[in-house]
Amino acid sequence: MAETDHAEIWTDFNEAVNMTPAALRKHLDSEASKAVGQKSDGDESTGHAMGRRILEIKDKKKADLSDDDYAAMRKVVGYVHRHLKQGGKARNEPDSAWRMSLMNWGHDPQKD
């Protein structure tokens, strides 16, 4: 990945992930967080796992981020942008699965 790609991804990621690490950690520890998302064979959901990955990325210095980190960051940005286009009536429900899922990916739509 080129440095220019990294700069753009860094900016987009930090706009998409609007939750602090502390808020994301607290959310990921909740039953509501664990109850939503796509799971295979009862395992952890994709979004919940990505929430933990986001925390790992946030704990690193920008200079220490790898191409794999930037690929994960790009995936987060894409998911958040796609998911925000959905929601319907769930947008007004603070405990909706739609919101809980977005929060697993580091974005709280009620902060927009």
UniProtKB/TrEMBL annotation:
InterPro entries: DUF3140 (IPR021487). It comes from the Bacteria. Residues 28-55, 85-112 are annotated as: Disordered. This is DNA-binding protein. It comes from Methylobacterium gregans.
